[in-house]
Amino acid sequence: YGKENVDSRHSRGRGGETTRFHTVNVAQPVRFSRKCPTGWHHYEGTASCYRVYLNGENYWDAVQTCQRVNGSLATFTADQELRFILAQEWDLEEKTFVRKDQHRFWVGYQYVITNRNHSLEGHWEVAYKGSSEVFLPPDPIFGTAMSEKENVLCAQLQCFHFPTLRHHGLHSWYAENCYEKSSFLCKRSQTCVDIKDNIVDEGYYFTPKGNDPCLSCTCHNGEPEMCVAALCERPQGCQQYRKDPKECCKFTCLDP
Hints:
With 256 residues, the chain is mainly β. Helices cover 9% and strands 38% of the residues. It has two domains: 41-92 and 99-189, Mannose-Binding Protein A, subunit A (Mannose-Binding Protein A, Chain A, Roll), CATH 3.10.100.10; 192-253, no CATH class.
């Protein structure tokens, strides 16, 4: 629980006397508003964070970019997770290489071609060893930039910008040349984010984003735990004051 200073209150008692109630340090529940860094979308069902990068990179460069932010190209564990992704507003419309009504991004699957006779035959695989249990996409639409020498294609998930199409979950899966440039979707575990929007490593103390800058917690599995609140003395010689929302026990005096 956080601690909140409450100003003194006055009420009229019996016989017209003024009774003074002075209440300080009332415990109030703290809501932690962030489990992902700025720019990432949080999904409670998988305790994960998701972000679309607009750089327009090939598949292998996209893999490295996701790894640099402690994530990987996204794979999906259930239909509910995919529906969450499809329902998001990813703000892609200003990029020149993306159509305004639809957009594609690399995700963490690869299509392995096993037969090139009359039609391409093959199967989907998860691109990374050690990935958690995931579902595999249905048969893909094959991209136009395919090379006859390529035996491995990379997955693009196509979704739609228009809200009515987006919320109906309409989407397509493409097997595309891995060296084509595209937006891409990274996924990482939820994390602790401090009051100044810094990412906090497991086991470290931090002040979580919320409504109490005097709270100190331990980061455990991306959640603040074992929180302790500092109690602040109200500023001396100051009747009206404002607390700093990001600095513990820092006040601004509002008296003339």
